[in-house]
Every structure is written in structure tokens, then in C-alpha cells.
Amino acid sequence: MTDQLWAYIFVGGTFALYIGIAVWARAKSTADFYVAGHDVHPVLNGMATAADWMSAASFISMAGIIAFAGYDGSVYLMGWTGGYVLLALLLAPYLRRFNKFTVPDFVGDRYYSDTARIVAVVCALFVSFTYIVGQMKGVGVAFSGFLGVDYKLGVAIGGMIVLFYAMLGGMKGITYTQIAQYCVLIFAYMVPAIFISLIVTGNAVPQLGFLGEFQGTGEPMLAKLNMVVTDLGFTAYTDGTKSRLDVFAITAALMIGTAGLPHVIIRFFTVPKASDARLSAGWALVFIALLYTTAPAVAAFARLNFVETVHESVYAPDETLLAGETATPDWFFEWEETGLLAFNDKNGDGRIQYAPGGFDDASSANEVKVDRDIMVLANPSIAGLPAWVIGLVVAGGLAAALSTAAGLLLVISSAISHDLGRRTLFKEMSDTDELKLARAASVGAVIIAILAGMYPPDFAAAVVAFAFGLAAASFFPAILLGIFWKRMNREGAIAGMIVGLGFTVVYIAGFKVFGWTNGPEHWLFGISPEGIGTVGMVLNFVVSVTVCLLTPPPPRDVQEIVERIRAPY
């Protein structure tokens, strides 16, 4: 069977499974819609959390960025995994005991203020919409490659599918769908990784093959990759170009941002009790580690295979290939149709030259434009794997992108319907009306997300990194101080969130949207937009504590709540 037919079989089969689960677990109450009835087993919740966490950025984009950035891409591995340890130890069980299932709900009640709740809603919407743009980028890449259509049409198709089962099942449907999606995505990620590791290194364990020999030659695989890329003029794969401060800032923003992500925090309210929240976080780390320890190997294999199959290949050859010449592989032409891969024959020799420099720069020798987000999906084709593996990877990529997008839609809808609607503006709203408003908010959110996803400011992983920075700069100080410092009051929390979010939004938007001159020499302290959330977080802490100490302490009953959620049973 052809690659396309296998893709239809795997994608069609998994989608039928997801929709069936959504219908079976259809939300019948607000408790089902928001927190899955509080009865999900910790192991299953850990699996669902892992799927919610391992979005398009993890499955599709992370290995692609590492493939082209090399050592510099390690910030994503360190930040995104370290953040879960922080979340499990510092926040998850205490938030569960506070018994408020959204971050704005926690902020509003802990800081005894509807104003604080509204500011938190605004922060949640900024974070979630930024995050969902990255997912829509991944959805567009996966669907365009799967259907052979333009990228923008792929975004629109994927968005409509997400909307269907998010609206139908709510958190209950999303939770059980995400369990199935985790099984699909991890199988789809590991199978090609094992095959390619065997081809490149002879070792069936990708993590070991990555550190092993290249095709039994006695030459280390990474040394071979370094030689290949440096011969073309690129920086050695194992060398970094980022400053230490920027590496620290990006890693910290990703790590701390994890602990402030609304769609991750809400997952710890689907389990029966607080101890299960910590257990869920532990299981989530185990499930996440399977993919994250494999990603560096997938990235290195992808970069090596890409160079060896594309560079100096003859584009659209006839039967007169000369000795030693290789034809451009079929997968290259298939991805060209999506607009995410392109060839510009600058010297007119009919061969593809892959080199440093801009694709549109006439003075550059580089003739290839490649969107990094295609690398994981294209990797099985580049390595010449069987058609069924290619179809499996497409299904896995879609599972990763859609699982997180659905979780984010729920955060957006709950922020609008529950936190802004029922808890602030319409306090007499019934459960039925709240559920209707939540579903209407999901429709509006999907429309905005589709439009934004058609014109993303960067690669999927980079866009997601911006969302983590926003979460670190806005929510983390308010949550941490709210749990561990009784003196923290509403004035400090409100001022800190506004300053942290405002500074970070302006900085990221300036460089990525409004055309400020980008580059290390123009960045504040040499910190990139991906890492600026760390600075925003520091500003938030400073402003929060300063304003808090200059204003009255919180009421005694609020201080007693803080003591109670940290006390042992």
C-alpha cells in the first residue's frame, strides 16, 4: 500500500477512536466538563497529563529545532522536563487542596478580589492563546503533509476537529481521549526512532545509538554529524552559539512557566484527592521521559539523513544521471506542495546546494528553505522506512497537536464562562447557562486560534516557549507566594501580574510581531524573546513583594486558609 493509504488508515482509525471516546464520555454537568468528575485514576491521569503536555511542540517541533540548532536546542529538553519536578513538588498538591480548579479561581479567592480574578483571566487568555497558536502550527504541518494540501487549509481542518470533541466531551471526554492519544503518539514516536537507530548505528535503543558508532565504522555518530555539517560551513552540531545567560534565561522560563500553565494545573483537579495529584505528576514524568530522552537521537538522525539525501542531489532528474549522481528523493517534492519546503536553483546547475545563509539572499549559496517543524514527520520518509511507519507518525503528530489544543480550549472556555462569567459578571448563572457559555467560548477561541495559526510568528516550539515565558512572568509568583507566604495580599498580586505580563508581552511582540531589529546585540542583557519571561518573573516578584509590604496584610481568614492547605492531614 502507498504512504498516503497507510496514513488514511492510521489517521482515520485513531480519529474514529477519539470521537467514539468523546461521545461515550460526553459531559453532562459542569463538574464533568471542567474536572472530569474528580474520579480519574492517578496513573491514567498521568498518561493524560503527558499527552496534554507533549504537544505539537514536543512531538513535531522539538526534535526539528534540535536537529538544526544542535547543542542550543538542549534548552527545550532541560526546561520542559525540569518544570514538571517543580510543579510536582511546589504546586500541584497544594492547589488541589485549595480546591479551585482554574488558576483565576485560585487567584480570585486567595487574593479575595474580583479584580485579581479578572487580571488572572486576562493572563490565562494571553498564555493559552499564545500556546494554542503553536499547536495550530503543528496541526497545520501534520494535516498539510498528510493530505498534501496547503498549510493554511491544514490549520483550518485540524481546528474544526479539535472543536468537535472538545465541545462534546469537556474535560471528561478530553481526559480519556488524551489517554488514547498518549498511546498513539508514544508508539508513533518510538517505532521510527528504533528503526532509524538500527539503520544509522546498528543499535535498537535510540538513546544508546545516539551516543554510539556510525554504521559500525568505529566513528562516533556525533563526530560523523559534526564533520558533515562543518564541511558544509555550519557550526559544529555539538557546539553552542547562545550566551550562558540566554541559555539560563530560556531554561528557567520554560521550567518555571511549566508551573504556571493553566491547562497543566487543571489536570490535577481530575483526581480524587491531593495525594493523587502528586502521584499523577510522578507518573506524568515517567511517561514524558520516554519521548524526551529519545528526542535528541531523533534530531541527530534527522539532520544527518537530511544532509546526505538532499545536498548535491539532482532536482527532477531524467534518465541521464551521471555516475555518482543521486536524484532528489520523492519526499522532497511531496513536502514542496505544502509550501513548507522549497528549492531555489540560484546557480542554475539543477542540483540542490544546502549551505548556511538565507534562502532569499541572492549572495548566499543556500538553495533550500526547510521549515524545521516538518523534520519529525518527514524523518521516516527521509530514512526510507516502510509506508506503514510513515502513516503511523502522521497519526502520532496529529494526536500530540490535537490533545494539547483540546486542553487549551478548555482553559479558554472555563476562564470565560466560569471565572469571568459565573464567578464575576453573572453570579446567578445556572449550570446549564454556564455550560452553554463555555461551548460558545470554545467556538470563538477556535476561530481566533485558526486565524493566528495560519500566520504564526515562529516555529511551533518557539511559539510555545513564548507561552511558557508569559506563564512564568504572570502566574508563577502569584501562585507560589499565595501558597507559601501568608502576608501576600491582593494589591501585590495584582500589581505583580500586570507588570510581569505587560513587560513580557511588549518584549516578545516587539521582536516577533512589530519588527524590532532582532539579534543578541539588540536584546535586553542579551536575553532572547524565548527567555525574557525569566526577567518578567523577577520583575513580578520584586513588584509583588514591594507593593505587598507597603499595603495592609490580607484578612485573617485568608491567612488561615494558607496555613491549612500546607498543613498535613
Distance between the termini: 59 Å
Biggest sheet strand order reads 1-2
Can you summarize the main beta sheet?
A: 2 strands, antiparallel
How many alpha or pi helices? Answer: 22
Q: Please give the radius of gyration in angstroms.
A: 24 Å
CATH fold field value of the domain at 3-303 and 384-456: Hydantoin permease
Which percent range fits the helix content?
A: 55-70%
Element pattern in H and E: HHHHHHHHHHHHHHHEEHHHHHHH
The CATH class assignment of the domain at 3-303 and 384-456 is: Mainly Alpha
How many strand elements?
2
In terms of DSSP E residues, the strand content is: under 5%
Overall geometry comes to: globular
Provide the residue-averaged pLDDT.
81
Oligomeric state of the chains? single chain
Question: What structural class do the secondary elements suggest?
Answer: mainly alpha
- The assigned CATH architecture of the domain at 3-303 and 384-456 is Orthogonal Bundle
Low-confidence spans:
none
What would you note in describing this structure?
The protein is mainly alpha-helical and 569 residues long. It has a domain at 3-303 and 384-456: Hydantoin permease (Orthogonal Bundle), CATH 1.10.4160. Helices cover 70% and strands 1% of the residues. It contains 22 helices and two strands. The protein has helices at residues 3-24, 30-35, 42-53, 56-69, 74-98, 103-110, 114-147, 151-201, 206-209, 221-231, 244-258, 262-265, 274-292, 295-310, 330-336, 375-382, 387-425, 431-454, 460-484, 490-512, 532-550, 556-566; strands spanning 341-343, 368-370. It has a two-stranded antiparallel sheet. Helix 7 (114-147) runs antiparallel to helix 19 and helix 8 (151-201) crosses helix 18 (431-454). The chain is globular, with a radius of gyration of 24 Å. It starts with a helix and ends with a helix.
